[in-house]
Every structure is written in structure tokens, then in C-alpha cells.
Design a protein that fits this description.
With about 250 residues, this protein is an alpha+beta fold. Helices cover about 15% and strands about 45% of the residues. It has 5 helices and 15 strands. The protein has a 15-stranded mixed beta sheet. Strand 7 and strand 8 (about 120) form a beta hairpin. The model is unreliable at about 10-25 (pLDDT under 50).
Length: about 250
């Protein structure tokens, strides 16, 4: 079940930088930045593991993320290009401390997942189910989820595991959200008007092996304010720690 857990893990890098349409109409300088602070979910919430600095240029539709640990060292970097697709951008992520590189690139008319020297073409999908990749997830949520709050199924591609899976996102009752997640969300936006969603495999069998992801969006601004799940950044032992990430703008 390793590919399934990797798909869930990779969602943490998929939630932010597809804000082109929603923000560009209001941006004066045509650039955008945000910060994600990752707390260890298993420890007191003051334990910061790393910070993710997000940048996006609306003119070029290209973005980047720098991941910096608590000692101030750059541990990972991601480069993204939304010019061909808002739902499935091409991108390249480098895990510096682990000498790994993965992403999605355009090859003629096909999208190719790569991890180091391994390539795999993303197969054709059912047209009724959108293909979502990396930073396109946030744009997908804003366009199809926030106003309707309907349970929605999508196909998610994860090049790190050279796999893809049918996923679904569902509105979550606030009382079912863990207190630590709520605390980080409200602290990040200094607000309480937050809607939470649970993301998990469509198959009930796969759900038994894959921990769910919970995200929260502020209702008034429609901005992502919290993520809870496995990190896409490896720790020193090469594992994906459980984190709660608060986003500020």
C-alpha cells in the first residue's frame, strides 16, 4: 500500500499555489507570497519543523516554494509552471538532503511523472473526473468545492510514487476536527469562520490503509488556512512526519 500512502502524503504540497484566477483580479503588483508553518502534530504545537515560503508571479504563471528548517537551512525547493494548466501544472521538487528529485513535465502531448531517472506517462483519464496535480489542488477546491460543499471525486497524480488514485473531498463537521487543527487554523487567520474538509481515497478499502488529510479554508477570504496530515518533506530518518501546517498571507 506504499503508493497509496505516498498519494496522501503528497497532498500537503498540493494545496496552495494555484491562486492565479482568484487573486490576480485584486493584485496590484502581480506577485503573491504566503508562508506555511509546519508544526509536529505529535508534539506541543510550538514545535516548528520547517517553514515553506511560497511565491507566485501572475504574469508568468510560475511559482516556487522554499522549505527551510528550524536552523534556517534550505532543505527542499519546488518550481511550478501553471501556464498550460491550472489543475495540473508541471513542476519539479528537489529534496536536497536526500538527493531526490521528482515532478511532472510536458512531453509532446503527454504528461510524464518522473522521480530521479524513472519516468511514467500519466494515462488518459475519464473526462468526467478532473486530473489534479500538485499545486492545482487549491484552484480545484476554490472553483468546485467551496461554494457547493458537495462531495467531489477527482483523480490525483503523484510522481514521487509513480502512481495515481481516485480521491474524494467531503465537508467535515467542525465538531469532528481535532482541537490542535482548529487552534492552528484560528491562530493563522485570527478568525473562526472556517470550513473544514476531509480528503481520502474513494475506495473504502484503500481508506483502511491511508490516513486522511484535513484542510481548512476561511469562508470570507476563501484562503487555505490549515493542513493536517503527513508532510511531503522527509525528516532526517527519511520518513514523512505528521504535521499541522498553518498558512499566513
Amino acid at each position: 500500500m506504499k503508493p497509496i500512502s505516498r498519494i496522501i502524503t503528497a497532498l500537503s504540497s498540493s494545496l496552495l499555489l494555484a491562486l492565479i484566477i482568484n487573486i490576480s483580479a485584486f493584485a496590484d503588483n502581480m506577485t503573491f507570497s504566503a508562508k506555511g508553518t509546519a508544526y509536529a502534530a505529535s508534539e506541543p504545537l510550538e514545535t516548528v519543523l520547517y517553514v515553506a515560503q511560497h511565491q507566485l508571479d501572475f504574469t508568468t504563471r510560475k511559482g516556487s516554494v522554499d522549505y527551510i528548517d528550524r536552523e534556517g537551512t534550505l532543505i527542499a525547493n519546488k518550481q511550478m509552471d501553471f501556464s498550460a494548466s491550472l489543475y495540473c501544472p508541471t513542476f519539479s521538487t528537489e529534496l536536497i538532503n536526500h538527493s531526490q528529485r521528482y515532478g511532472i513535465r510536458q512531453q509532446n502531448t503527454e504528461l510524464v511523472m518522473f522521480r530521479n531517472d524513472q519516468d511514467k506517462v500519466i494515462p488518459a483519464q475519464d473526462s468526467s473526473m478532473p486530473l489534479i496535480c500538485d499545486g492545482g489542488f487549491d484552484y480545484f477546491v476554490k472553483r468546485q468545492i467551496l461554494d457547493s460543499n458537495n462531495t467531489t471525486t477527482f483523480h490525483f497524480a503523484v510522481p514521487y510514487s509513480q502512481a495515481s488514485l481516485d480521491m474524494q473531498i467531503t465537508l467535515l463537521e467542525n465538531k469532528k476536527v481535532k482541537p490542535g487543527v482548529t487552534a492552528v487554523a484560528e491562530q493563522s487567520c485570527n478568525c473562526s469562520d472556517i470550513s473544514y474538509y476531509i480528503i481520502q481515497p474513494k475506495s473504502w478499502l484503500y481508506r483502511m490503509f491511508a490516513p486522511p488529510v484535513v484542510i481548512g479554508y476561511q469562508n470570507s477570504s476563501k484562503r487555505l488556512v490549515v493542513f493536517s496530515g503527513q508532510s511531503n518533506i522527509l525528516d532526517e530518518s527519511g520518513k514523512n512526519p505528521d504535521v499541522i501546517i498553518g498558512y499566513t498571507y
